[in-house]
Fold these 4 entries.
Entry 1:
Amino acid sequence: MTKKRLYLIFTLGLIAGYSWLAYNLWRQHAVNNKPVCFFKRTTGIPCPSCGNTRAVMAITSGDFYNAILINPLGYVVTAVLLIFPFWLLYDVTLQKETLYKSYLQFEKTVSKKAIAILLILLILLNWIWNIQKGL
């Protein structure tokens, strides 16, 4: 993947993430019991990322304990939403490639069989956690 394409994907992803978070903060007081997740609406069981929005919202309001109970992946999403805009801005402004080089290193690391298996196992455990607690 080229640097330009990666930065575009990250930028669009961050815009989508912040837009989704803003929308959910705006409608926080509305009563809506319909699951937003397409996977959950279709199958009736939560996906591994179900609850991420609520976890991020709990983190932003300082409710760290409930955030981890809702979905531990919310901490990863929060970190990305907090760090990546500044990292992108740094690279673009100073014409650096630190994010791109880090992405390439991450891709190389994740392609190792042991690391890939560990990450898949963690996602599966998170999925089991979501199903078990009836998210």
Note: The chain has a mean pLDDT of 88.
Entry 2:
Amino acid sequence: MLLTATSLLLSITLIVLGLIHFNWVLGGKWGFEVALPTNEAGKRVLNPKKFDSMIVGLGLSAFGAFYLFQAVFTAIKMPDWLTTYVGWIIPSIFLLRAVGDFVYVGFFKTIKSTPFAKMDTKLFSPLCLFMALAGFTIQIFNQ
């Protein structure tokens, strides 16, 4: 029951994040500026195109679907190799994101005073760490 709830929460979180990225593809601006790392002078370090946001949105939505199938659509059996490998890959991606690049992103970033860095410390990195720990927990207890 707890694993199902965790899978469902993870699924919803990932799908909502995917929808935010699709909003940016369609020209939405909500959260876009603060979601991009900048240097101390305020210049963006990343300049994603709409296509980049679409790829990230598709990836996040696919990750969400993976956990949705584990939580809700249990009658549809995914191949064991898929649940094993993808089940470890997804949380590993978010753990790496939480650790970061040691400069602009993650818990160990050195640039901490920009608007992005502050949001990263308060929300983005903790959310990534939560998703990593939830994914690892699901994977460990589903084996």
Note: The two ends are 15 Å apart (CA to CA).
Entry 3:
Amino acid sequence: IRRTRAGLVTRSLANVVDVLVVALLVAGGYAAVSAARFLLSPTTFTFPAPAPATLLLLGLFVQAVYFTVTWAVAGRTYGDRLLGLRVADDRGTRLGWKRCTTRAALCTIFPIGLVWVLVSRENRSVQDLLLRTSVVYD
């Protein structure tokens, strides 16, 4: 079966959903840390105030882990699932952990690589070209 590769708009919408999922995960982590601090010292409790750079780095780390795990285990993120997408290799099969980890790092560090879909005849991002992957309609 030859599947159609997804374009920029669909992939971008899936990424927006994924960013929201990551933001909720980071917010949940913040709530858990706050609750633990409160339980350990309720009389002197103050909410943690991490530096913006710390939150950004934590968010990027969570995003990379989220991408890696969801692509390796399910072949797609939650955003991909909502929009009917799947990440696949050249044969149309699910990626292994190593390729998922590399792809996740590239997508997190260099998200602008997605824009290459606009000039690619095959609707492939820079990350797809480097790793021989595709985002296809499932």
Note: The chain has a mean pLDDT of 95.
Entry 4:
Amino acid sequence: LGLDIAAGEGTAVKSAGDGKVLSVEDSKDFGTVVTIDHGNKVTAKYCGLKNVTVKSDDIVAAGQAIGEIGTVPSECVDEAHLHFETYRDGRAVSPINLIEGTEQ
């Protein structure tokens, strides 16, 4: 239940909301992944980043740059993009439904 957002390599990736960085990890499938707790039991994974500017336990503001578009190894045939996943209570949910307010 992820969302791929097209953007040129090197484009700044910004936090979707205020939150706390839970982790910055390297994944074989998703490249560098920044996971942010956005509160209200919602976490988000920003996948395929490079030049990450945050670390675990950092507090971020909505719109704050957290890195740049890099590559998503498991989706390397696709154009450059951000792979964005959201979770509520640890369960994968559609980012679109969260944005639209239809995900409870």
Note: Residues 95-100 form the longest helix (6 residues).
